[in-house]
Automatic annotation (TrEMBL):
<dbReference type="InterPro" id="IPR037224">
    <property type="entry name" value="PapC_N_sf"/>
</dbReference>
<dbReference type="Pfam" id="PF13954">
    <property type="entry name" value="PapC_N"/>
</dbReference>
<dbReference type="GO" id="GO:0009279">
    <property type="term" value="C:cell outer membrane"/>
</dbReference>
<dbReference type="InterPro" id="IPR000015">
    <property type="entry name" value="Fimb_usher"/>
</dbReference>
<dbReference type="GO" id="GO:0015473">
    <property type="term" value="F:fimbrial usher porin activity"/>
</dbReference>
<protein>
    <submittedName>
        <fullName>Fimbrial biogenesis usher protein BcfC</fullName>
    </submittedName>
</protein>
<dbReference type="InterPro" id="IPR025885">
    <property type="entry name" value="PapC_N"/>
</dbReference>
<keyword id="KW-0813">Transport</keyword>
<keyword id="KW-1029">Fimbrium biogenesis</keyword>
<dbReference type="Pfam" id="PF00577">
    <property type="entry name" value="Usher"/>
</dbReference>
<keyword id="KW-0998">Cell outer membrane</keyword>
<comment type="similarity">
    <text>Belongs to the fimbrial export usher family.</text>
</comment>
<dbReference type="InterPro" id="IPR018030">
    <property type="entry name" value="Fimbrial_membr_usher_CS"/>
</dbReference>
<keyword id="KW-0732">Signal</keyword>
<feature type="domain" description="PapC N-terminal">
    <location>
        <begin position="38"/>
        <end position="189"/>
    </location>
</feature>
<feature type="signal peptide">
    <location>
        <begin position="1"/>
        <end position="35"/>
    </location>
</feature>
<keyword id="KW-0472">Membrane</keyword>
């Protein structure tokens, strides 16, 4: 019976003596030796042939096989994948850089999907499909490290071996659709009010909002419904309303999202409309963060291996190294709406070349090469009984061009409405950013008359860094008397009250806010949004707008002024708001 689990092995070297005094002295000297603990496999079974080879574990290594691991490329998470691992010897280039004793099997196809320029390395280019070439031998300075405890595989590949891509880019092959799931979010509020005076009454009111959903593969089903209940001494009522339901999924190769059901059209060019139908539109969430929004493209020339540093408003927003020659940087993270960029090129000899790139942006601007689209085929959706549920289609396209220009256009079509819009935006450097577009529309209204009109829109943004003034947006829209929107053509009558939002007791006292009159069309609208930094004294903002109408002197106006600062570590603010609608006394 064996009772020894761990045994100690002794190793020594033996030298055959030669009959000389020197050899005899060496032979009598202590011989080098060492010892190690090992697991005695005979302890597991009396039959040695029934015991598996445990030599791998005796070296603190791991068994080869398939493992589900988190894959990181150059410290950026890619995906969670099942990766095959092979046992390797601890000598030679193929030795692992960790103590797992394993090497990840990375096929040429897998490396290509990760963005590796496999065609530039013969060992990878000639490797058979499904084979596992040694990464360290194929690409100089490349290595992998497997953290067995964390089930994490780190892959390090020199940037020169990668296909050029935007920072933060993850190939679609590694995108995850998530798990199948049922979702339910709810909001419940209630109130009880009592009149304690003699003969007083009590009232109860409740509200329940339900956001439910189903995730199944790439599809997402969402529904929003509400319940209202009111009760008192005299009467009580409750109302269950279904607000919206839609089904959506990503369309990866179009970098867009398909929506079926209840949603809203984009508002970049036309007024946003509620609809029930189909919409396919670009989804910026499919872009890496460094490609979202608008930022200028930086061009320059380096005389040597140089460090390029980009600052905005005194802050470093980007720094990288470029080889000699012309360079282009087109993946800046979205910056503030405006503020000149300072580019500093530091050469290897220490000399510095510094220049400014003026930058401002309006909402419509897109990066060079970016194509943003939206197409909708649907039925107009409204809870108002005063509106028709007309069928319509809408398409918009926004294209980012070189040199800071953006071209855009779109159309809206229905049985009673035709509109075509076209415009352009530009980053004008020291002059700021501007966009200008015009819309031509033909409308048939409730009086069965046909109207034609045009609407001109102008937007401007500029930052004055020296004074700390940020003119975030200044806009003006002018419309002729015959210009109407698609929403205007859905009214059943030329004027009246939209009384759906009022109870029966309110209908005898209509509010001006419920009133509409299609003879009073929009004329001019001006808007302004300014933010002023006051150094160590806080900041001030001013927001204002005014809308005028044809055939009436009534106007809509809005003015908001606010000031904020920090005192003794406490943030505080004060604001003023004045809002006036047409028809208000």
């Amino acid at each position: 019976m064996r009772n020894q689990l761990f045994m100690t092995r002794y190793y020594s070297s033996v030298t055959k003596p030669v009959l000389t005094p020197l050899a005899l002295a060496i032979a009598l000297a202590p011989a080098p030796g060492w010892a190690e603990n090992y697991f005695n496999p005979a302890f597991l079974s009396d039959d040695p042939s029934a015991v598996a080879d445990l030599s791998t574990f005796s070296r603190n290594a791991q068994a080869a096989g398939m493992y589900r691991v988190d894959v990181y490329l150059n410290n950026t998470f890619l995906a969670t994948r099942d990766i095959a691992f092979q046992a390797v010897k601890t000598t030679g280039k193929s030795a692992p850089t960790d103590d797992s004793g394993l090497r990840a099997c990375l096929t040429p196809e897998m490396l290509k999907n990760m963005g590796v320029n496999t065609g530039a390395f013969p060992l990878l280019a000639k490797a058979a499909a499904g084979s596992c070439p040694d990464l360290a031998s194929a690409i100089p300075a490349a290595r992998t490290r497997f953290d067995f405890a964390q089930q994490r595989l780190d892959i390090s590949i020199p940037q020169a071996a990668m296909v050029a891509s935007a920072r933060g880019y993850i190939p679609p092959q590694y995108w995850d659709e998530g798990i199948n799931a049922l979702l339910l979010n709810y909001t419940f509020t209630g109130a009880n009010s009592q009149d304690r005076s003699p003969g007083g009454s009590a009232e109860n009111s409740y509200f329940l909002g339900l956001n439910s959903g189903l995730n199944l593969g790439a599809w997402r089903l969402r529904d929003y419904s509400t319940w209202n209940a009111n009760s008192g001494d005299q009467n009580s009522d409750s109302d269950w309303q279904h607000i919206s339901t839609y089904l959506e999924r990503d369309v990866v190769f179009l970098q867009g999202e398909l929506t079926a059901g209840d949603s809203y059209t984009p508002s970049a060019l036309f007024d946003s409309l509620p609809f029930r139908g189909l919409q396919l539109a670009s989804d910026d969430n499919m872009l890496p963060d460094s490609m979202k929004g608008f930022a200028p493209t930086i061009h320059g020339i380096a005389r040597s291996n140089a460090q390029v540093t980009i600052r905005q408003n005194g802050y470093i927003i980007n720094q990288r190294y470029v080889p000699p020659g012309a360079f282009t940087i087109n993946d800046l993270y979205p910056t503030a709406a405006s503020g000149d960029l300072t580019v500093e090129v530091k050469e290897s000899d220490g000399s510095i070349n510094r220049y400014n790139v003026p930058y401002s942006a309006v909402p419509i601007l897109q990066r060079e090469g970016r194509l943003k689209y939206a197409a909708t085929v649907a039925e107009y959706r409204s809870d108002s009984s005063q509106k028709e549920k007309v069928k319509f289609s809408q398409a918009t396209l926004i294209w980012g061009l070189p040199h800071g220009f953006t071209l855009y256009g779109g159309t809206q079509l229905s049985s009673h409405y035709h509109a075509l819009a076209i415009g352009s935006g530009a980053n004008l450097g020291d002059w700021g950013a501007v966009s200008l577009d015009v819309t031509q529309a033909t409308s048939t209204l409730a009086d069965n008359n046909t109207y034609q009109g045009q609407s001109l829109r102008f937007l401007y943004a500029k930052s004055l860094a020296q004074s700390g003034t940020n003119l975030q947006l200044m806009g003006y829209r002018y419309s002729t008397s015959g210009f109407y929107t698609l929403d205007d053509t859905t009214w059943k009558r030329m004027s009246g009250y939209d009384d759906d939002s009022r109870t029966d007791s309110d209908k005898s006292r209509p509010e001006w806010a419920d009133y509409y009159n299609l003879y009073y069309t929009r004329r001019g609208k001006v808007q302004l949004d300014i933010n002023q930094q006051l150094g160590g004294l806080g900041s001030l903002f001013i927001t204002g707008s005014q809308q005028s109408y044809w055939h009436t002197d009534e106007k809509d106006s809005l003015l908001q002024v606010g000031y904020s600062d920090t005192l003794a570590g406490i943030a505080w603010s004060v604001s003023y708001n004045n809002n006036k609608s047409a028809g208000d006394a």
